[in-house]
Write a structure and sequence with these properties.
Blueprint: E1 12-14, H1 28-41, H2 45-54, H3 73-99, E2 108-111, E3 115-118, E4 121-124, E5 130-132, E6 137-140, H4 143-151, H5 158-177, H6 179-187, H7 192-221, H8 228-238, H9 241-247, H10 262-275, H11 281-286
Parallel strand pairs: 1-2, 2-6
Antiparallel strand pairs: 3-4, 5-6
The protein binds zinc ion.
Length: 292
């Protein structure tokens, strides 16, 4: 992916290097969100529960409590990358919203290390990147990207990282357009297996939005290099629910899916990328579940 020298977003707050010791992690609603998000990222929910119960993971490479730490050159580069990708999403979504007669309110992005406080609660880094609708903010611990790279066999996977950011921005777009509310309103009313189908629709729609972003972003910025789409598809494929369940050794049970199978995630990202059709969003909510 070509991104160096690109404009950076003014909506990033870098909290890495800040001390996090003493952050209360765990409990209640955030615990639930954390486990749901963890499923997306291929993290064993039991591990997350462990983290939640123990509360945080010590001070890490941050300085002693109360002291700021200087970021490494690699961390600075990672920050610049995330900020540039966020700017690419702002430019694309501002334009698409304008075309649809709407105004795009850009999300904020917080980069953190170890653990973070949000209006959705406190979260340990083990949850991976997530979006908190209450403060319209993406929370990302960039060390997650190193983990993703390892998962993809050690290849330099910057566009896969951009896909993850674009997926989280997709959740923000869904929040602005009211899709998240539709799904939230079903949470209490439906049996769990049926509600999961709505959760899958929401996740596949976020993948579709990531694809639509890549479609227009490429036209505008020409940032995609040979192999990038394959690398993003590979990571979509690596984090589908069927893969996650297989890897964790359990029986693959479709009614437990909350993010869609690997094949579904690849399909919707690719469709968004190929068509750039913003108006198809509704279809993902209206088509029979079996056709997704
Ligand atoms: Zn998601």
């Amino acid at each position: 992916m070509k991104w160096e020298g690109g404009e950076q977003s003014g909506n990033v707050e870098d909290r890495r290097g800040m001390p996090t010791r003493g952050l209360a992690v765990g409990g209640g609603a955030i615990g639930l969100i954390v486990v749901v998000v963890a499923a997306f990222l291929g993290i064993d929910p039991n591990k997350v529960n462990d983290v939640l119960n123990k509360g945080g993971g010590g001070p890490g490479p941050g300085g002693p409590a109360g002291e700021k730490r200087e970021l490494s050159a690699e961390e600075k580069r990672q920050g610049k990358f995330s900020s540039t990708v966020l700017r690419y999403t702002e430019e694309v979504w501002e334009e698409q919203f304008r075309k649809a007669g709407k105004r795009y309110e850009a999300p904020k992005m917080v980069l953190f290390y170890d653990a973070v406080s949000t209006r959705c609660g406190d979260a340990p880094s083990a949850v991976g990147p997530f979006y908190c609708p209450a403060d319209k903010t993406l929370y990302i611990d960039p060390t997650f990207f190193e983990e993703l790279e390892r998962k993809l066999g050690g290849s330099k996977a910057e566009f896969s990282q951009a896909y993850v950011i674009a997926h989280e921005v997709g959740h923000h777009v869904q929040h602005l357009l009211g899709y998240s509310d539709i799904v939230d309103s079903k949470r209490q009313k439906l049996p769990k297996a049926e509600f999961n189908q709505w959760s899958v629709r929401l996740e596949l729609q976020a993948d579709y939005l990531a694809g639509v972003w890549a479609h227009y972003g490429q036209r505008k910025f020409n940032f995609i290099e040979p192999g990038d789409i394959e690398s993003a598809l590979k990571s979509a494929n690596a984090i589908g629910d069927d893969r996650l369940q297989k890897r964790s050794g359990s029986f693959v049970s479709p009614e437990k899916y909350t993010h869609g199978t690997s094949a579904q995630r690849v399909k919707w990202f690719r469709l968004g990328y190929e068509t750039g059709d913003f108006s198809k969003l509704r279809q993902i909510f209206e088509m029979p579940y079996g056709d997704l």
